[in-house]
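Quick one: structure for this chain?
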Amino acid sequence: MTLAQMLLGAVLSALAAGVVAGFLRVRRIGVLLSVAGAALVMPLCWNSILNWTGATGLFSHDLPFALFPVSWQDTGSGVFTLAGAGMVLMLGSGRNDSPRRLAALAGAAAAAALVVDVYFY
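Got it. Here's what it folds into:
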């Protein structure tokens, strides 16, 4: 995977996460930026790790299910985004929100990154 592909996918993930966060009625710009930022940075980190270690080919075999051809590489983007969004929200702009709200926002960012990774990489 090229750097340009990774950057495009990360930007699309951030945009999708921002849209989903908007549907969840995020009113504070800091929370919205945290969600979108995690969806930008974390898939980029995961895919960079796969590239640097030469493991992209091992993780990129899609499931033979036409509607949702997910791979371990796609799943890793979602998992990394879930962890990153959860941490940045808990320690930053969402620290005064309820745990349920933070989990929903982090899950939304992770779902956006996963779906973008499955269909656009």
